[in-house]
Amino acid sequence: MILLLLLLLAGPGVLAAEAPVPPAGPPVTDAATVQARGRVLADALRCPVCQGLSAGDSQAEAAVAMRLRAEQFVREGYSDAQIQAWFVDRYGEWVLLEPPRRGRHWIVWLAPVVLLAAGAGLVILRLRAAATVPPSVEPDLPADLAADPFVQRVLADLERG
Amino acid sequence: MNWKVLLVALIVIVPLVWVLASAFGHDPHALPSTLEGRPAATFSLQDLDGREVSLASYEGRPVVLNFWSTWCVPCVREHAVLQAAARAEGPDGAVFLGVLYGDEPARARAWVARAGSAYPTVVDPTGSLIVDYGVGGVPETFFLDRRHVVAAKVTGPLDVETLARHLEAIR
To answer: What is the predicted ipTM?
Structure first.
């Protein structure tokens, strides 16, 4: 797990305060692009002081600071992966609203799909089993009732369909 | 048939519950700082009185960095503990610094004038330090050793024993 995290951090380059890495691309000057990318990035980050809100949705000081920092990094040319890695570096993986698609986190992504498939398979098996068993109209009647002419007529009608 | 279904369900559900329980089973604000053992982010900011305060100017001295606000009850509660410890430090002892978090400087100035403070509190207008230190709320206190490497982070109000223990560790 730790190795995976280190690989993620090492991959795109970590924007650490103590050892800044070069941005992945050229500086971004278009304000609309900076704002849009900053918003998407902030939406994927957890607001550290809120309950169930993203940094993009909250007006808390910490969330606003995170948005500003994300926009600053976009402006400087850092890639989305570099920026996300920087926040993970500061707050840990907890800061990601969605579990990363790697390591044990795959369980969270795959379990619902597997359960859904298993449920669907179970339903199909049950339906097939029900279809192969012929419906029986032979009721389990006591001997005196089975000998009753009216009951016999009803059973005969049922047999004919 | 039924035991097979049960087995498949268990194989899927048990790991899922394990992952969710490990994620939700603790207070997220009590997470240890990912910055421990790493150099602290440097800063140069103005304090409540407008004086420039720079972390670099305290080179060679341990630093206690306390994020606080006047609206935070636990911060108010730990204030006396921090002040007493700061006053007990000698000229070469640990440096105490406050960082105002989500509060008006004027209100903090008035509060400090009433309650007193043995050390400066810097104002972080853009919230830059909050993000640099991965602060999740107040109070949070960072203990930096003489090389200004983050030695520990304490979330929540400090008591005398906890503060003394961490101070001893960074001396």
So the answer is: 0.77
Hey, which residues does B154 pair with through a beta bridge?
A: B141
Give a yes or no: residue B77 inside a domain.
yes
Q: Residue B29: closest CA among chain A residues belongs to which residue?
A: A48
Contact between A28 and A34 (Cβ < 8 Å):
yes
B13, B104 Cβ separation under 8 angstroms: no
Shortest alpha-carbon distance between residue A77 and chain B (Å) = 19
Q: Which residue of A has its CA nearest to B41?
A: A17
Cα atoms in the 13 Å half-sphere on the side-chain side of B137: 18
Residues from chain B that touch A68, judged by Cβ atoms under 8 A, are: 126-128
The domain containing residue B45 runs over which residues?
33-170
Whether residues A92 and A49 fall in one domain: yes
Tens-of-pLDDT digits for all 161 residues of chain A?
Answer: 343 333 333 334 444 444 357 888 999 999 999 999 999 999 999 998 887 899 999 998 889 999 999 999 999 999 999 999 999 988 888 899 988 787 777 777 888 888 888 889 889 988 988 888 766 656 677 878 878 888 888 888 888 86
Q: Do residue A84 and residue A148 come from a single domain?
A: no
